[in-house]
Structure formats: structure tokens, C-alpha cells
Amino acid sequence: MDPLDTVVLPSAHTSDGRLIVCLHIGDPQRNQGVLTVGAHFDGSVVRGGALHNQDFTIRQTLSEFTFGAEGGPTELGNRTAEWFEAVLARPLVPCEWHHERKMYAVRYEYADTGRGLSEGFEHSLAPDALRKRPAADGVIRGRGRINRAGLGQPDVITHVRGVRPLQ
To answer: Would the pTM count as exceeding 0.90?
Structure first.
């Protein structure tokens, strides 16, 4: 983890007066952001989860990252650090689909659960047969969303971070 991937916002600089700590998880080989997690402290309670990567609000839709605790500052700091370590230990992999030796789709997911975190689809690089099908499957052109089931098996799966899953 790069120290530049962590942010601490003092309570005087946040909209709700809480201390916010966050961690940007990414793929350094591709310079790609994947997930932002963090915690909001109010002095005796900490709430954490997946955060919006710009305003650092907790995203309720990604409940598997939900974290909460009560206690003193030292205890909350330690428990939050343990939570960050557990999130970082999860096996993160990008699944890539290639056409003519170029990647046209990528989906970052946790190898232990298959939970997708971020994805992208480059319309102009996809095979002709797929250019029309993702649009029919609800993909909005330019937004980079994919329907993994319609792509078949990935051409490449690599390990980015975390504990490598048993093979």
C-alpha cells in the first residue's frame, strides 16, 4: 500500500464534524482505482464502509464492508486498523477479456466471493459480436459497465493484492 492511498480528514474539515480516515485500494500496475473504504469517527463511535471516492460518504449499497464499533479513541483506532487490514487481505483480482491482443473488458473482483468492485468495457476494442450484445443487455455506452455472464470466461486473471486464494 502506498501512503498516498490513505487520507485523514480532521473533523474541522468535514461537513459533519467527524474525523474521516480512508483508504483507496487500487491496481498499481494499471494505475486503476478499484475501491475506497473508510471510517467516520465522532469521538466514541466509529462507522465504516465503502466510501464515495470524492465526498467520502458511506455507500450503503456495499454492505459487506460495513463496520461499526463504540469505545474510547485508542480502542476505536485499533479496531479500525484491524478492519482495514482485513479488507486489504481479501484476494483482489482483475478479470480481463481480450480481442486482437487488446483488453476490451475488465472486472475487478474478490476471488474469494466473486464480488465485483469495478469494471470497464471499451466498446471500440470489443469483438464485433459483442459490440451490439452489451448494449442490448443494458450496458450504457460510455459508462463502462459490463455483463460478465455474456463475455464467457476471462482470458487473463491476475492477483493484485491480498491473500492468494488456494488453487
So the answer is: no
